[in-house]
């Protein structure tokens, strides 16, 4: 909890300078962002040691996952964020909290080919499922899992993604928002 509190303090401090989360959501930071990100922890396999968070922005869910990995005593998170100011924020949090994480300051489509084997890929409020699958195809090899926050259009996104991709998708209802989901994607292959 100490690390999450310290992260929240840094987020609020930096939010005054750069847009890390929607300004209107600061009043519900704990439920809307922290808890929403933290709910991924129970879905990450115990054996996972290499986690990639795409489009990390203000570190949600990537930094929350890194805090959990630190508590577990194993695992490493790579946060992919192309925006220089946001990447600087992520690095400061990682250093301040001594988190098992690194920042890859590149565009997603460039970064994924350089990251190597990955156990879990996360993304929150980034893109539609079809686009996410296109970006993470090199990372979602056999045995890897994607954990993506999705909203009420999940069924439509699955149908659209299935035009180009074969995959297994398991849905977990969000504990934070009605009509929202965590979708677990496995066994990804192009059609």
CATH class: Alpha Beta
The total count of helices amounts to 7
Largest sheet: 7 strands, mixed
What is the topology, as strand order, of the major beta sheet? 3-2-1-4-5-7-6
Descriptors for this entry?
191 residues; alpha/beta; Rossmann fold; 36% helix; 23% strand; globular
In words, what does this structure look like?
It is a single chain. With 191 residues, the protein is α/β, with parallel strands linked by helices. The protein has a single domain (2-190), classed as Vaccinia Virus protein VP39 (Rossmann fold), CATH 3.40.50. Helix content is 36%, strand content 23%. The chain is built from seven helices and seven strands. It has helices at 2-15, 29-38, 62-72, 84-97, 108-111, 129-136, 154-161, and strands at residues 50-54, 76-80, 101-104, 120-123, 145-150, 165-173, 181-190. Helix 6 packs across helix 7. The protein starts with a helix and ends with a strand. The model has no long low-confidence stretch (mean pLDDT 94).
């Amino acid at each position: 909890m100490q690390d999450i509190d310290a992260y929240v303090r840094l987020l609020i401090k930096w939010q005054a300078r750069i847009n890390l989360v929607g300004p209107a959501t600061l009043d519900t930071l704990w439920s809307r962002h922290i808890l929403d990100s933290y709910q991924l922890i129970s879905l990450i396999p115990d054996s996972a040691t290499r986690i990639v968070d795409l489009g990390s922005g203000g570190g949600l869910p990537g930094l929350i996952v890194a805090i959990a990995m630190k508590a577990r005593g194993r695992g490493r998170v790579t946060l992919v964020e192309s925006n220089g100011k946001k990447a600087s924020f992520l690095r400061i949090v990682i250093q301040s909290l001594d988190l098992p994480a690194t920042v890859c300051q590149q565009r997603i489509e460039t970064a994924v080919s350089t990251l190597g084997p990955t156990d879990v890929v996360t993304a929150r409020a980034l893109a539609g499922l079809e686009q996410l699958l296109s970006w993470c195809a090199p990372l979602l090899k056999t045995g890897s899992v994607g954990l993506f926050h999705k909203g009420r259009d999940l069924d439509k996104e699955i149908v659209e993604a299935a035009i180009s991709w074969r995959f297994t998708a398991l849905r977990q209802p969000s504990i934070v928002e009605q009509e929202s989901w965590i979708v677990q994607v496995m066994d990804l292959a192009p059609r």
